[in-house]
Design brief:
Chain lengths: 307, 505, 263
């Protein structure tokens, strides 16, 4: 039972990070029908910005601001930095290809992904970076918390989960309750019709990249709070994030959240009950099953092939 | 939309005739089709000297090109007795095979197969298992290699199977995941239900070399030098694969591939089994990749999971895209160019020469021989000398870090580019990121503003190359590939030799 | 003229809740030319998509040449002898005119990849036959698609010639039933006259049975043995051109959308 609670907790933490990444894929895919391979690398840049911000704020042993402010600031820094990066990527690598055959922006995206990952390695080396959050307040983030049964739920996990869910709810409100959100939904439904209704498509696309990349930046910080990061981590995490988006139903915002959580739980239980070595295999099988039997995902809508 | 029309003088005429056809209800003396038919010969041809050259080269039959190319390639071990050069020739030959295989999937089948390298790995591991002490199986080459090819095709077929109804993006992600999975399985395959199958991260060792009619082909000659016979074997395989694929492409199967790339629904309705054809291209690619894998293993005698990772995939993709996806000579050219490029970037001296050569060729290519070119070259030269002397006058430590290989180019660079003895930590990221920002800005401005901006950008690029990138060949190689991919997609998606396509109806 | 070549029995098609075709019964006899008319959105093109297997019907059965073809893949249906053209023109634009037609011979040829790699004599003979077939199909259009144009890419053709090429491509699958989706759309009066004669010629010389969707009533009048009118996925009239054209339901369906005025 304790194992189960622990694994559920792990799955929830991991899943909320996957969900944030999946949202970025889904937002862009919904509007541009583009699989943004570089998204995982935007996430990676987010983890590095967080790392740099911690150093600027005096490191974790002796920070110059209170812990809550430190966490808030590094998250905001990563979100802002990644949002800018997302806009640059869209403007220079994808926009020139908007009317090209579909394979062209995909290959460009591969190039961008590769470029970002290895630029990072060039500038900051290949060795892993650890935020060392354990040193904050002498380990308070790990020792404080509450218990379920015999399992300790440490503060750091609570922060990760709560922050991820708050951001998802904010995004949901933004997309359903605001004018720009309505424009986004209209564009994802039918880009040309939306353009004829006077929606500035370029702005909507840029906005989708800003939102998605900012979420990836936040996910990067939340992820790296507990796990060391390195320059080429974006590939695998991006793959998982995209899988989560597919499982949930690509283009659907609640779907991306659901998919992230499903993937997080699946991976966590597989690691706990089967083997840490083979958890990727299970995730892959899950992806294949979904793609074959329910390609529209948990919450997506089936396409009608128009002829 | 096709670039070939750009320098055609008579283009307005076509539009005028087209308009006259659509205006009058009675058909005019000459309609659009008649006009196109009569002027068909100079339709896409370039004018001027390069056009004449192109027209003349077009007359040479494909087999003459192939024979010449292979003959020149065979001369490499004759011309150079360096084990290194010969080994690089072998690697490039393997790249050529891999590019040919990927071209079948991407260029002909139109599928974005991001698991391609996994099939390369499948071939390598299959060969190692079929011809090594690991299981004590030692199949002769004439049995093991065909078997490996069949295994590769079957695995390719199975991976393609669940993807058959998926659109391009989903297929991409499934195959990419398959690559990841292949790495997971091989890395952890030393304990597969209690059996050691793949040797785990330590890989499989002591695979047999190639053997023909009972004669083993040793991978190394006396003194540990690479045995060029292996390069000839790969080259022979390359010729066989090239010709076989060319014949397939000229057959009904090739036509069907082209059709489904143009319009897969129309192809399906015209009686072509689109899914089966796509699967076939997938399996073909996988089989060729597996063949290449077995040849590499036979030479190196060992196989490790990490040899089959994402960067290699991008390398092969860049080759195919650069050469021109869909064109067999194109992808071979791409493989040779990228193969040489990657080797040159390894060495600081070569890397330096390559950089300056690329800059000069690039600027001349864009600006031709014009006033702007003179201003750019002269401006950059003077700009550098001034900066260098100012920096040297302030503190000699700012400029005395240079010196290195590259002959005259290095001597020139030492007097022109600022290379501090010790680089302050923040300079690296700041200069690199400013360079990216400035290059991106360059694409937004035009005319003389661009020329003015280009001068400091070129200097900054030289600074970054000398100070940051030469010293780190590994990431630099991959960064260059990423840039090539993005730039190609934006400026020349057909690659060097790819066929021009019209996307507008 | 009694044997039914194509027989739709109570075929329905619904997208979500919207019924585009509703329990439709329709047949085409061997050697017949049948026209389908109806206002825009009546379900005519959906009907073609159902027959060719692009859509799977949500109800009913489609019988071709004595056996059911419901649930078959489009390429299997083509192999049984049904070929079509597209209203929106879906040529292989970057392929040559000849290759467009040759490609359509895929279904009834058989040289496999291994024979192609070795270029066996059988494979080369078949290739020659495909070439001759394609040239024969193209020659059907007389000097409209003349020899010197066959190596041009299809995108260089004019609109009317693209329509002709689509028909040539469809006939290269060696069909018994030809489905033509608005063959006269976008043509000038002279070309429309030609296409009317051509459809008749396709039956007499080519031996095809033809089901055609057409908006131009002159064409419909000129070619049809029988006319079927659809509206909202339901058959509202059937019979000779005069019977259908004067049917009150048809007049109402067209006047309701203002379609008759255009004629």
């Amino acid at each position: 039972m304790d194992t189960f609670i622990q694994l559920t907790l792990n799955g929830l933490t991991l899943g909320s990070v996957y969900a944030l990444i999946a949202l970025g894929y889904s937002l862009v895919y919904g509007i541009l029908k583009l699989l943004n391979f570089a998204h995982g690398d935007v996430f990676m840049v987010g983890t590095f910005i967080g790392f740099g911000a911690i150093q600027l704020l005096g490191g974790t042993v002796n920070p110059i601001v209170p812990v809550w402010a430190l966490l808030l600031l590094i998250t905001l820094a990563a979100m802002a930095g990644c949002a800018c990066l997302g806009v640059v990527i869209e403007r220079f690598a994808y926009r020139p290809l908007r009317d090209a055959p579909r394979i062209a922006p995909l290959i460009s995206a591969l190039g961008v992904s590769f470029f970002i990952a290895y630029s990072m390695q060039l500038l900051f080396g290949a060795e892993p970076r650890n935020y060392d959050t354990f040193s904050l307040n002498g380990g308070a983030l790990y020792t404080n918390g509450f218990d379920i049964g015999n399992v300790r739920v440490p503060m750091i996990r609570i922060i990760t989960i709560v922050a991820a869910f708050v951001m998802m709810i904010l995004l949901w409100l933004l997309v359903t309750r605001t004018r720009v959100g309505t424009a986004m939904r209209a564009t994802s439904h039918d880009r040309e019709a939306a353009a004829m209704m006077g929606i500035d498509i370029d702005k909507v696309i840029v906005f989708a990249f800003v939102l998605g990349s900012a979420l990836a930046g936040a996910a990067g910080v939340l992820f790296a709070l507990r796990i060391p990061t390195y320059a080429t981590i974006g590939f695998l995490i991006g793959l998982k994030g995209f899988t989560a988006a597919v499982i949930g139903g690509i283009g659907s915002i609640p779907g991306a959240m659901a998919g992230g959580l499903v993937l997080g739980f699946a991976e966590s239980y597989a690691q706990g009950y089967i083997s840490t070595r083979w958890s990727d295999l299970l995730v892959f099988v899950l992806l294949i099953l979904f793609l074959v039997f329910r390609p529209q995902g948990i919450l997506g809508k089936a396409d009608i092939r128009k002829v | 939309m096709s670039g070939g029309y750009d320098d055609e003088l008579s283009r307005p005429l076509e539009g005028a005739l087209e308009a006259s056809t659509s205006e009058g209800p009675t058909s005019p003396a000459v309609g659009r089709d008649e006009w196109v038919a009569r002027h068909g010969d100079n339709r896409t041809g370039r004018t001027g000297r390069s056009g004449q050259l192109e027209a003349r080269l077009r007359v040479v039959p494909w087999w003459a090109w192939l024979t010449t190319f292979v003959a020149l390639f065979c001369l490499v071990p004759v011309a150079s007795d360096s084990g290194y050069v010969r080994r690089v020739a072998f690697d490039i030959a393997i790249y050529m095979l891999l590019a040919l295989g990927l071209n079948v999937v991407v260029g002909w089948g139109g599928l974005l197969d991001l698991g391609y390298i996994a099939f390369f790995g499948v071939g390598a591991y299959a060969y190692a298992l079929l011809s090594s002490d690991h299981y004590g199986v030692h199949l002769p080459t004439f049995v093991s290699i065909p078997l490996v090819v069949v295994i590769g095709a079957i695995v390719g077929f199975l991976v393609g199977l669940p993807s058959r109804r998926l659109t391009g993006d989903y297929l991409a992600i499934v195959t990419l995941f398959f690559l990841q999975l292949f790495l997971t399985v091989t890395t952890n395959g030393d304990d597969l239900f209690g059996h050691n199958v793949t040797g785990g991260a330590n890989g499989l060792l002591n695979a047999d070399p190639l053997s023909f009619f009972g004669h083993e082909l040793p991978p190394t000659l006396k003194g540990g030098l690479f045995n060029p016979a292996y390069m000839y074997v790969v080259l022979a395989m390359f010729v066989v694969v090239f010709v076989a694929l060319r014949f397939v492409n000229l057959s009904r199967t090739g036509r069907a591939w082209r059709s489904l790339r143009e319009d897969s629904l129309a192809a399906e309705v015209m009686g072509m089994p689109v899914n089966a054809l796509k699967l076939m291209s997938f399996a073909f690619g996988a089989a060729i990749a597996a063949l290449s894998g077995s040849l590499v293993t036979a030479l190196s005698a060992s196989v490790f999971p990490l040899s089959f990772s994402f960067p290699l995939l991008i390398i092969i993709y860049t080759m195919v895209i650069l050469g021109g996806s869909g064109s067999q000579p194109g992808v071979v050219l791409g493989a040779v160019l990228i193969g040489i490029l990657l080797e040159l970037l390894r060495d600081p001296g070569d890397s330096r020469v390559l950089f300056y050569a690329a800059i000069i060729v690039g600027v001349v290519f864009v600006y031709r021989f014009s006033l702007k070119l003179a201003v750019i070259v002269g401006g950059t030269f003077v700009f550098g000398l001034v900066l260098h002397s100012i920096a040297g006058a302030v503190d000699n430590a700012w400029v005395n870090g240079s010196g290195g290989e590259g002959g005259g180019v290095a001597d020139f660079a030492a007097t022109w580019v600022i290379v501090p003895a010790h680089l302050v930590g923040w300079i690296t990221p700041v200069s690199y990121i400013s360079l990216i920002a400035l290059v991106l800005t360059l694409t937004l401005v035009h005319g003389w503003v661009r020329v003015a901006l280009l001068i400091p950008v070129l200097y900054l690029a030289a600074f970054v190359w000398e100070n940051v990138m030469i010293a780190e060949p590994e990431p630099t190689r991959y960064i260059v590939l990423g840039v090539i991919l993005i730039a190609l997609m934006i400026f020349r998606p057909t690659g060097l030799l790819g066929e021009k396509r019209v996307e507008i109806i | 003229m009694s044997e039914k070549l194509l027989d739709l029995q109570g075929v329905s098609m619904a997208f979500g809740g919207l019924k585009c075709v509703n329990e439709l019964d329709l047949h085409v006899n061997r050697g017949e030319i049948v026209s389908v008319i109806g206002p825009n959105g009546a379900g005519k093109t959906t009907l073609f998509n159902l027959i060719t297997g692009v859509y799977q019907p949500t109800g009913g059965d489609i019988v071709f040449d004595g056996s059911s073809i419901t649930g078959l893949e489009p390429h299997q249906i083509t192999r049984r002898g049904i070929a079509r053209t597209f209203q929106t023109l879906r040529l292989f634009l970057n392929m040559s005119v000849r290759d467009n037609v040759m490609a359509a011979a895929y279904g009834h040829t058989k040289a496999g990849v291994f024979r192609s790699m070795l270029r066996t004599p059988g494979m080369r003979r078949e290739e020659q036959e495909i070439r001759e077939l394609a040239e024969k199909r193209l020659a059907f259009f007389g000097d409209r698609l003349m020899g010197y144009r066959w190596d041009q890419p299809a995108y260089s053709l004019s609109y009317a010639n693209r329509r002709r090429l689509e028909i040539a491509r469809a006939t290269a699958t060696n069909p018994t039933l030809l489905l033509l989706d608005e063959p006269a759309a976008g043509m000038n009066p002279k070309e429309t006259q030609e296409i009317t004669e051509l459809i008749e010629l396709l039956r007499t010389d080519g031996g095809y049975t033809i089901l055609v969707i057409e908006h131009d009533m002159h064409v419909v009048e000129g070619i049809s043995d029988r006319v079927v009118a659809l509206d909202h996925g339901i058959k509202i009239a059937e019979g000779t051109f005069e019977e259908v054209a004067t049917s009150p339901q048809v007049v109402e369906a067209y006047l309701g959308t203002g379609g008759m005025a255009r004629k």
